[in-house]
Amino acid sequence: MKTLYFAALGFILSVSGFAQSAKQVPARQAKATHPQTSPANYTTALKNHLDVWNERDQVKRLRKIKQTYTADSRVVTPVATATTYSEIDAAVNDVQRQHKNYVFSTAGAPVISGDHVVFPVNFGPEGAVPVFRGEATAQLRDGAISYLEVRLQRKLTASR
User: Fold this and answer.
1) Alpha carbon separation from 10 to 53, 113, 133, 153 (Å, rounded)
2) Phi and psi at residue 66, in whole multiples of 5°?
3) Would the pLDDT of 12 be above 50?
4) How confident is the model at residue 149 (pLDDT cuts 50, 70, 90)?
5) 81-127 per-position pLDDT tens digit
6) Mapping DSSP to helix (H, G, I), strand (E, B) and coil, where does residue 139 land?
7) Distance between CA 86 and CA 35 in Å, rounded?
């Protein structure tokens, strides 16, 4: 049931994200039920996550990965599932190699519920209209991401 709820919530967010600009908006949230899942912790975790996936320098990226994800984290993307720091780094490297000059950015307000957050994302050339939009669902443990699933559901056309 929880999975269905988050899938429906993600769909609603992804649809509403199309009407929003890429500017940063404050998070809407339910009251956090765990001390490590405050809105500030999620904001930091999401910023760190985007920094990891946008970092081109591998040494800096590995340092950021260790600060952002738990040692037993699971990161699921459209192209790979990673369960170690080195696998996360390899997935980022593959995405960056395939999509040079593309960056990830937020596409609206994250929604926090308990120890989960769903946030809309953009992916495309830096400073241009994004090519892809979708959402990500993350779970934090001790202030770090323990689970993250990214779904890039829509390839945009030039008219959007």
Assistant:
1) 20, 13, 12, 10
2) -65, -25
3) no
4) very high
5) 999 999 999 999 999 999 999 999 988 888 888 778 999 999 999 99
6) strand
7) 29
Hey, which bits of 3-115 come out as E strands?
28-29, 69-76, 81-82, 102-106, 111-113
| pLDDT of amino acid 143 | 86
Over residues 35-64, mean pLDDT:
87
The HSE-up count of residue 121 (CA atoms within 13 Å, CB side) is: 27
Residue carrying structure tokens 């593959």 = 94
Residues 63-72, mean pLDDT to the nearest whole number:
96
**Statement: residue 34 has pLDDT above 80:** no
Q: Which two structure tokens, joined as six digits, stand for 133?
A: 């939009």
3.30.470.30, 3.10.450.50, 3.30.390.50, 3.40.50.2300: CATH of 2-21+28-155: 3.10.450.50
Structure tokens at 118: 């769903």
CA 38 from centroid of its chain's CA atoms: 17
Q: What CA–CA distances, in Å, run from 39 to 27, 30, 89, 142, 147?
A: 7, 10, 26, 13, 17
